[in-house]
Amino acid sequence: MHDEGQTSRLEALFDQAIELPSDQRRSFLTEKCGDDLELLRQLEALLSHVQEVPGDFLEAPLPLPPMHDATSTIESGQVIGNHFRLLRRLGEGGMGIVFLAEQDSPRRQVALKVIRPGIISRQSLRRFEFEHETLGRLHHPGIAQIYEAGLHASNDDPESTTSQPYFAMEYVLGPSLLDYVQENQLTIKAKLRLFVKICRAVQHAHQHGVIHRDLKPGNILVVDEASDPPETSFDDVGQPKILD
Predict the structure, then answer these.
(1) Per-residue exposure over 119-133, b if at least 16 CB sit within 10 Å of its own CB, e if not
(2) How many CB atoms lie under 10 A from the CB of residue 81?
């Protein structure tokens, strides 16, 4: 596990390495990482994704066409990343569209978010690669797990160099935090138990160098995983899952 200083070092070395020609990166990382083989492994994993992106895509932000958004051409039935079949839309926002998708191996349903191409730049692509690698290391019952991330090239135009980042995460089926509290008419004690579970999940993220910059009730869903009978006093409320 990396502390905050180690996480900063990882990001700094990644930014330096990406500026180098691909044939010089290995020697650069070997020198900078020294005996820290885990740091070297993480950096090489990040760079392996970026190396597959066409050069033009990294040079400048991709403009969002005024009358066409490539994200809008992605519809149910398509396959993203070779093994995620889109089933239906779950929601849409400024960053992109979230679909319910089925992963072929292992067989499971996931929430798959496709990022709009118009907001992608050289800097944001680096951040995307760094953040999904970091978030993928978070394993806590109160945080929706991220399974995989990658780049999707549109099949509509084989000549296009535009690729859209996507990531697949745990599909959480449950009401929002406020709806759960209201529907179950929770007592003050039950609300506090739920609040403690959320705090523990947030603490886990903080201990891994991750800060949620948009933590709000709408980004927290609650699933009913209480044991019967409850094992502890905290089990008489559902399990919150922090999203986004």
Answers:
(1) ebeeeebbebbbbbb
(2) 16
- Report pLDDT digits (tens) over 140-186: 999 999 898 888 876 554 444 457 788 899 999 999 999 999 999 99
Q: Which residues pair with 220 in a beta bridge?
A: 242
* pTM of the predicted model as reported, rounded to 2 decimal places: 0.61
Name the token pair of 33: 């990482």
For residue 184, with 0-12 CB atoms within 10 Å meaning exposed, 13-18 middle and 19 or more buried, which class applies?
Answer: middle
Q: Report the half-sphere exposure of 110 (CA within 13 A, side-chain side).
A: 25
| Whether residue 214 lies in the annotated active site | yes
Active-site choice (23, 35, 214, 228):
214
Helices (H) and strands (E) in the chain, counts: 7, 8
